[in-house]
Amino acid sequence: MIRILVVDDSAFMRKVVTDLIAKMPGTELAGIARNGQAAVDFVKADSELDLVLMDVEMPLLNGLEALKQIKQFSSVPVVMLSALTNQEVTIEALESGATDFVEKPTNIMAIKDDWIREFFAKIKAASRQQRRSLSRRREVVAPNPNNGQVKSSLELRRNLKAVVIGSSTGGPRALLHLITALPARLSVPVIIVQHMPKGFTKTFAERMDAEAKPKVSEASDGMLLQNEVYLAPGDYHMVIKDGRLYLNQEPKMHGTRPAVDPLFNSAAAYYGGNLVGIILTGMGKDGAEGMGEILAKGGYTIAQDKDSCVVFGMPRSAIEKGVVNEVLSLDQIRVKLEELVR
């Protein structure tokens, strides 16, 4: 049973969230808190807590400051409940250790089924992170599941034309870790899909641009690819054609838009064997098909390892599909990526 603490100063929002938890099999309400300080106190007193759902803006102690305090003494996953107006604080919360965030519905009186499905999926994924952290020592992942030739960065650089990266839950913090290691001048474009709603991607791109040496931009339709870093905007799939990035609003894939597979598939078709694909932490199986396309066209594929993932869903799917050349920790990917693009 997943025991959840709900933290929100709005009585109405607390009612909405607790009613949803009551309808979700395998979950139970551990308690409620009306501000960040009460949340910190609750987590200190309850060592059996599995998950915290916490609002960003609250009196006495806001969600961001409460998160930072909780992370000083507890590994319990925290999922932020964020309004569109709290983009910058939400991105900072992800940097500070929040597992994920759920954007509050724009019309609280008419919550859509898509929002409820996302809410349930993120709770399940975050709670799996807690259970895995208690048992990960007993689990082993093959270091090179594809049994293909592991290539050095020097060998890959010879004909490299681009790097594509896909991520979901836990991705913002992982991406910041990678991008801040890159040099100011890149030898190839680095093109990213991160599962994130519209509006938040622009803020996240600006955050990466401020902290990284190379230029980082949220992609726009028809944008000419240069040796920079590009992030797909929320609510749009992104594909590569004729050296440009194109956006579309075709149906969601794997329940999300943007999805990783459209980018990876189109990149494989355009760059052929001169491409490296990297799949990072995230729930579900998005990216596995695209990793297969990259491998089939002669490209090289890397997956993040289980121990350094927040959620091992997307890398696991690619590994189990047999389309991964190399499994590396996030720190190892950071080193390899910097070597590839310098």
What would you note in describing this structure?
With 342 residues, the protein is α/β, with parallel strands linked by helices. The protein folds into 2 domains: 2-137, Response regulator (Rossmann fold); 153-341, Methylesterase CheB, C-terminal domain (Rossmann fold, 3-Layer(aba) Sandwich). 38% of the residues lie in helices and 20% in strands. The chain has 12 helices and 15 strands. It has helices spanning 11-23, 36-45, 63-71, 87-95, 113-135, 153-157, 171-179, 200-211, 260-271, 288-296, 313-320, 330-341; strands at 2-7, 27-33, 51-55, 78-82, 100-103, 162-167, 190-194, 216-218, 223-224, 229-231, 237-241, 244-248, 275-279, 300-304, 326-328. It has a 7-stranded parallel β-sheet with strand order 8-10-7-6-13-14-15, with helices on both faces. A 5-stranded parallel β-sheet has the order 2-1-3-4-5, sandwiched between helices. Helix 7 (171-179) links the parallel strand 6 (162-167) and strand 7. Helix 2 runs parallel beside helix 3 and helix 4 crosses helix 8 (200-211). The termini are far apart.
> What is the alpha-carbon Rg in Å?
20 Å
Number of domains: 2
In which order are the strands of the major sheet placed?
A: 8-10-7-6-13-14-15
The DSSP helix count reads: 12
Q: What oligomeric state do the depicted chains represent?
A: single chain
> Which structural class do you get from the secondary structure elements?
alpha/beta
Query: How many β-strand stretches?
Result: 15
Helix content: 25-40%
Give the topology string: H per helix, E per strand: EHEHEHEHEHHEHEHEEEEEHEHEHEH
**What is the CATH topology descriptor of the largest domain?**
Rossmann fold
| Tertiary shape | elongated
